[in-house]
Amino acid sequence: MTHDSDRLLHLAQRTVDERADLQAKVTIRNYTCFGRCDDGPNTFVLQLEPGEDPHRDPDFGALETQRGFYPGMDETKILRVLDRHCGADQVVEELVEPY
Questions:
Q1: In 3D, which of 36, 16, 17, 7 has the Cα closest to residue 83?
Q2: Average pLDDT rounded to a whole number, residues 37-63
Q3: Rounded to an integer, what distance in angstroms lies between the CA atom of residue 10 and that of residue 49?
Q4: Residue range(s) defining the domain that contains residue 24
Q5: pLDDT at position 1, please?
């Protein structure tokens, strides 16, 4: 792991575990830097189709069509993304970038 991403991964999982509203809709996965390791740590919020397995590797075509790539994450940013994008279904415009 790079850019202290393991600490942010644990923060994200702990936050989901503590919030019932997120537990029902968020699965935290440790994946890759999405080809932009120098920008990391990176987060991608991927909306799944009903019945889609959250543990399956993502379809990279979906990554290109969904607005959910967040580079350069820190504790404050990850909590904002969890609260707004995951919790309220609102992309965090000031943090999101095209994949």
A1: 16
A2: 85
A3: 25
A4: 5-88
A5: 44
DSSP 8-state code for residue 38: G
pTM for the structure as a whole: 0.88
Query: CA torsion sign, 86 to 6 to 31 to 76?
Result: positive
φ, ψ of residue 40 in degrees (nearest 5): -75, 175
Question: Does 23 fall in a domain?
Answer: yes
Closest CA to 97 of 58, 45, 47: 45
Strand segments (E) across 1-99: 43-44, 69-70
What is the rounded end-to-end Cα distance, in angstroms, of the chain? 20
Residue at 19 is within a domain = yes
Report yes or no on 42 lying in a domain.
yes
- pLDDT for 77 beyond 50: yes
